[in-house]
Automatic annotation (TrEMBL), chain A:
GO terms for cellular component: cytoplasm. The lineage of its organism: Bacteria, Pseudomonadati, Pseudomonadota, Gammaproteobacteria, Cellvibrionales. InterPro entries: Aldolase_TIM (IPR013785), Thiazole_synthase_ThiG (IPR033983), ThiG (IPR008867). The gene is thiG. This is Thiazole synthase. It is an enzyme of class 2 (transferase).
UniProtKB/TrEMBL annotation, chain B:
It comes from Microbulbifer yueqingensis. This is Sulfur carrier protein ThiS. InterPro entries: Beta-grasp_dom_sf, Mopterin_synth/thiamin_S_b, Thi_S, ThiS/MoaD-like.
Length: 268, 67
């Protein structure tokens, strides 16, 4: 029996957080979420004119999933923008939970660490439960904790790249130095093996979207990720063996037939 | 003529309507949206007594998919 993911006073059986964007159709999105086993889904807000209703079907499907909603502030480039979009999200989605994004660079969508800490501090004061999408910088993560975040979401790689865990040294450092903090690898995961690796390293959960939504068969890929994340968590709990430089036989060597002591006459 | 923008589109402004009146006139109904004026969130409870002035930039947002 796997242990539960505990964040902001809630317990979750699944350690797979999934995004709702980029699917071929709303029906495939809905089925992918169901098959993933995810209990937390991300979504967002965008400008809408009164004649637009195409978002309503998707929104209804997401609501019907029964998942904890995790609205994001994707696209915000300043703390002020993020704080205001967060307030708009709280009013519409009726949740204090927030995936905080403050982007500092358009090319690789890298979080702006300064804007992120500024926004997180203000949002915590306003009662939000902030899950910041951040880089793997230890000091940034410590500042976000100082600001009142109880969960951190360091990137594996830039959003949508599928590159996996690019900086394992930094990620291992985070895990080692922040042993009690729920750490969720968010973004950059492209394959189930990469998600399993993150879980084997002791990360508490994985958040991804593109790798499932852009798969040839998103529903099958959602299942593959669910299995990989479960496997990775089980492996972490079981305790991985320590790597060795030299070979060590797994089959007993004692009483090996044909074995005999080296003939001293043939030995120089 | 006085103008404002709603979601970056220009609209002429007659007088100084409340935000509630402006939204109704623009066709926004129900509670599936949230609003900011000049980049500042306006809670729904404040629509009736938020006055719209020339040059104001109104943003109206609704749920979409996201990662």
């Amino acid at each position: 029996m796997q242990d539960k993911l505990k964040i902001y006073g809630r317990e979750f059986s699944s350690r797979f957080l999934i995004g709702t964007a980029l699917y071929p159709s709303p029906a495939i999105m809905s089925e992918s979420i169901a098959v993933s086993g995810a209990e937390i889904v991300t979504l967002s807000l965008r400008r809408q004119n009164p004649a637009q209703h195409e978002g309503n079907l998707v929104w209804d499907l997401i609501r019907q999933s029964g998942c904890q909603l995790l609205p994001n502030t994707a696209g915000c480039k300043t703390a002020r923008e993020a704080v205001n979009l967060a307030e708009m999200s709280r009013e519409i989605f009726r949740t204090d939970w927030l995936k905080l994004e403050v982007i500092g660079d358009d090319y690789n969508l890298q979080p702006d660490p300064f804007g992120l800490v500024e926004a997180a501090a203000e949002l915590v004061k306003r009662g939000f439960r902030v899950l910041p999408y951040c880089t793997d910088d230890l000091v940034l993560c410590q500042r976000l904790l100082d600001a009142g975040c109880e969960v951190l979401m360091p990137w594996g790689a830039p959003i949508g790249t599928g590159q996996g865990l690019l900086n394992k040294y930094s990620l291992e450092t985070l895990r080692t130095r922040l042993p009690q903090v729920p750490l969720i690898i968010d973004a950059g995961i492209g394959a189930p093996s990469q998600a399993a690796e993150a879980m084997e390293m002791g990360f508490d959960a994985v958040l991804l979207n593109t790798a499932v939504a852009k798969a040839h068969d998103p529903v099958a890929m959602a299942r593959a990720f669910r299995l990989a994340i479960d496997a990775g968590r089980s492996a972490y709990q079981a305790g991985l063996m320590v790597r060795q430089q030299t070979a060590s036989p797994s089959t007993p060597t004692l009483d090996m037939p044909f074995w005999h002591q080296a003939d001293p006459l043939t030995q120089e | 003529m006085s103008e404002i923008t709603i979601n970056a589109e220009r609209h002429s402004l007659q007088g100084r309507p409340s935000l509630a009146a402006l939204l109704e006139q623009a066709g926004y109904k129900g509670d599936g949206f949230a609003v900011a004026v000049n980049g500042e969130f306006v809670p729904r409870a404040d629509y009736a007594h938020t006055e719209i002035r020339p040059g104001d930039e109104v943003d109206v947002v609704a749920p979409v998919v996201g990662g």
